Amino acid sequence: MLPDLGPLPPPSPSGSRGSPDPEEDSAAEEEEDEEEEEEEEDEPEEDTGKKRRASARRKNPAKSSKRDAGSGDEGQGGGEGSRQKDLSDPRRKRGRPPRVDTPMEIRVKNVLKALRKLKDEGDGRLRISTFEKLPEKKEFPEYFQEIKDPIALDIIRKNVKRREYKTFDHFIADMELMFENAKSFNEDDSDVYGDAVILQEEMRKAAEVERAKKDEDITGGEEGERGNKPTRLPLEKVEHRGETYRVGDWIHIINPNDPNKPTVGQIFRTWKDHEGQIWINACWYYRPEQTVHWAEKKFYADEVVKTGQYRDHHIDEVLSKCFVMFFTRYSRGRPKGIDEKKCPIYVCESRYNEIEKHFNKIKTWKSCIPDEVRGQDYELDAFEKQQVLKKLPSPILHLLPENAEEGHPLPDAKMGVENAPPIIGAVFKRARRDNVSLLLLRFYGVHCCGSLVQFKV
């Protein structure tokens, strides 16, 4: 018997249609994990979080990572032989896009790597860790009054990751600014001032070494690929069959498992290999019938879901362009200048976890798209009146076995060739929850075993 906890709060607009879906959790945690994984991919292995004023407190860099469990990809057979085989396959599964750095970006990373080697002779701390973040405004308001252009290493790294630096000198200028700010604000005999002087001198030496290198002597590739490190020359754009493709473009890719349903993806990388072949890396988006879900789950028409699959494809596998919109904008209009007859438009609301076989509603759309285009937006041709999006029953509901029961193991999707989505997904039976009880659980919590248990919304 549930206690009387007063009237229910108004329902969320996005969840007002149909019954609440027990598979759809808050995406905040998963999005944070994905963001952390992306940051960790580019983060150096160093202590972080020390404040500019030589605070003794540091963040613990050791974090649990869902990278291995969530991607379900490399080395699943176990053993070094399996790993070497995976590394030699240009289309192997990935949990994130490959690194494809320009010679300028490699120079930048080499300078940062050189600075990470400098340690204090006394306590062994990394000198660069002092410059990781700006001081807290509440703790040091005078810093922001005195320093007109505050900048820290985390800001510089984010600029590197998002390819804000168009030249090596632009990056060096920001590094110089960071060290000059530290020298200007701190006393000459302070540890921070001393660190700034030593690091600035080392940075200038490293920068000169990098400037002396020829572009052709600097190879791009993916770290961890022992011995034969493939050379990848990043491309700003790719011309193919009369179309121009760039990072951020939505595309249809050949689907050998079902030619009538091309794979929907978004380009994250474009490059040319050492043989002159052109490649793209795309994040796959599955159609509802390619997922495993409970029998009563409903989907929008033309819905796709974001996966954790980032796959390499030869440019010849790219068929045409398409477009994917976040569901909050999909109901308000369509991208200006796009002909839906030539460029199909899909709607996306959720991420799909293939391992757990569940869906998480996306909290922020920008967390799903490439860094290079997060600051861009498209113009919307707005509808006269916002549309009400209705959800439809599962397109593979007929696959539910007649003898399916709640306690049965979750089924698997039917797989086909390696570098394509499943041939067909599957459905399973799950106990339907009472709507009122579920809302109470989500918004208020319930008394359990004599104590109040709170549930995140």
TrEMBL record:
Its protein name is Bromodomain-containing protein
Keywords associated with the record: Bromodomain, Chromatin regulator, Nucleus, Repeat, Transcription, Transcription regulation
Keyword Transcription regulation: yes or no? Answer: yes
Instruction: List the biased-composition ranges (Basic residues).
Output: 50-61
Q: Where are stretches of biased composition, namely Gly residues? A: 72-81
| One of the GO BP terms on file | transcription elongation by RNA polymerase II
Top-rank taxon of the source lineage equals Eukaryota
Q: Name one GO molecular function term.
A: chromatin binding
Q: Which segments constitute the Bromo domain? A: 123-193
Coiled coil residues, start to end: none
- Protein location: Nucleus
The terms describing its cellular component in GO are: RSC-type complex
Please list the residue ranges that the record marks as compositionally biased, kind Acidic residues.
Answer: 21-46
A Pfam family found in this protein is Bromodomain
Domain spans labelled BAH? 243-363
